[in-house]
Design brief:
Largest sheet: 4 strands, antiparallel
Shape: globular
Order of helices and strands: HHHHEEHHHHEEEEEEEE
Radius of gyration: 25 Å
C-alpha cells in the first residue's frame, strides 16, 4: 500500500492492467466491477479512502473509477459495452513500466511505450498450468467413458430384478420437475437516464414513462430492455416502481453513482437482476 491516496490510486491503476493481462493469459473474462474489486483487494483502502460518500460509494472507489480514464487516454485500456479489455499497448506497458513510480510518471506525462518493447507472452508458470489442465482435460473423457460403461453394465444386470419388483406408476414429468425458487420482484423497473428521449419518452431521467420500463423474464428472474442508441457516452440508473424512491446505481449501490455506457452505436441490451441490484449490458 502507498503512503497516500495518490500513490494507492496509481498502484490500483497498475493492478487493473496486471489483472486484465492475467485474464489474457488465462482466458478468464472479468467485467469492469470485478476488475475494480480485484484491484482494490490487492491494494486495500486506507481509512480516508474507505469513507463513504453521499452515494454510498467509498471515496477510494470513486477516485479509482475516475482515474481509470487516464488509462483510456493513454491507449492502455479500452472501455467497451461488453466490458474492459487491454490492447497491445496496455500489455506492453505492464513490462515497460514495471515500477509503479515509472508507471505513474509515464501515465501522467503521456509517455508512450518505447517502440522496442515487445508484447509480453504468458509467464512460464501460467503456460505450464495450462498444459497440465489440457492433459487433465484430455484424460477426462476416457475416465468418463470407463465409468459410463461400468454403470451401464451394472444397470443391465439390475434391470430384470428392478422390473419385477416395481409395481408403481412412474411419476409424471410435471410432478418430478423441481420448483423454481423465486425472489419477490418490484412492480416495475425503469432504466432512467440521459437517453430516455431517444427511447420515445417525453423527457430524460424520468422513470414514470412506459417507454423506459424493462420487461421481466420469470424463467431467469431478470429484467431486460433493448434499445437502438446512436454512438455516444450515456449515463443512467435503475429506478423501481416508476419513481426515484428506490433506485440503484453503479455496482448495485442504492442511491449510488450513475452507470456509464460508452456506446459504439446500434442495439444494446440492458439486463437488471433484482437479486444483485446491478445491471449488465450486451
Amino acid at each position: 500500500m502507498g503512503a497516500n491516496t495518490a500513490e494507492n490510486t496509481n498502484l490500483r491503476l497498475k493492478a487493473v492492467l496486471d489483472i486484465l493481462a492475467e485474464g489474457v493469459w488465462s482466458g478468464a473474462t472479468l467485467n469492469a466491477g470485478e476488475v475494480l474489486a480485484e484491484a482494490i483487494g490487492r491494494v486495500p483502502f486506507n481509512d480516508h479512502e474507505a469513507e463513504l460518500l453521499s452515494g454510498g460509494i467509498p471515496r477510494g472507489h470513486k477516485t479509482l473509477t475516475s482515474a481509470s480514464a487516464k488509462l483510456v487516454k493513454a491507449g492502455w485500456l479500452v472501455k467497451g459495452r461488453s466490458g474492459w479489455t487491454i490492447p497491445e499497448d496496455g500489455l506492453r506497458a505492464t513490462v515497460a513500466f514495471p515500477d509503479v513510480s515509472a508507471f505513474a510518471e509515464a501515465l501522467d506525462a503521456g509517455t508512450p511505450v518505447p517502440a522496442d518493447v515487445p508484447v509480453p507472452t504468458a509467464p512460464p508458470a501460467k503456460a505450464k498450468t495450462k498444459r497440465a489442465a489440457t492433459s487433465k482435460k484430455a484424460a477426462a473423457p476416457k475416465a468418463a467413458a470407463s465409468k459410463a460403461a461400468t454403470t451401464k453394465a451394472a444397470a443391465t444386470k439390475a434391470a430384470p430384478a428392478a422390473k419385477k419388483a416395481s409395481t408403481r406408476k412412474a411419476p409424471s414429468k410435471a410432478a418430478a420437475a423441481p420448483a423454481v425458487e423465486t425472489l419477490p420482484q418490484p412492480d416495475a423497473v425503469a432504466i432512467a437516464g440521459d437517453f430516455n428521449k431517444i427511447l420515445g419518452a417525453p423527457e430524460d431521467w424520468a422513470p414514470q414513462y412506459d417507454e423506459v420500463q424493462m420487461e421481466f423474464n420469470p424463467l431467469v428472474q431478470v429484467w431486460t430492455l433493448t434499445a437502438d442508441l446512436p454512438a455516444g457516452f450515456y449515463t443512467y440508473k435503475i429506478a423501481l416502481n416508476r419513481s426515484w424512491d428506490e433506485n440503484y446505481g453503479a455496482f448495485g449501490v442504492r442511491d449510488g453513482a450513475n452507470h456509464e455506457l460508452n456506446h459504439d452505436g446500434g442495439p444494446v441490451t440492458f439486463t437488471y437482476s433484482h437479486a444483485t441490484h446491478d445491471i449488465v449490458t450486451a
